[in-house]
């Protein structure tokens, strides 16, 4: 359960930072935060699944 909470918190923080980067540097591309958050959560899922085997 601790890994899931950690992954959720990291994903929220990275998504927020991605949104800020999208707004400030990429010409109001707010969806960049969502894109980065999904990629980070996918990486966590793959990483944690590989460790179980």
Structure commentary:
This protein has 53 residues and is mainly alpha-helical. The model has no long low-confidence stretch (mean pLDDT 85). The chain contains two helices and no strands. The chain is 87% helix and 0% strand.
Q: Into which percentage range does the β-strand content fall?
A: under 5%
Which structural class should the secondary elements be placed in?
Answer: mainly alpha
Computed Rg: 13 Å
Tally of contiguous helical segments? 2
- The H-and-E topology, N to C, reads as HH
- The oligomeric state is single chain
Main sheet summary: none
Helix content: over 70%
Low-confidence stretches: none
Principal-axes shape call:
elongated
Calculate the mean pLDDT score and round it. Answer: 85
Number of strands: 0
N/C terminus separation: 18 Å
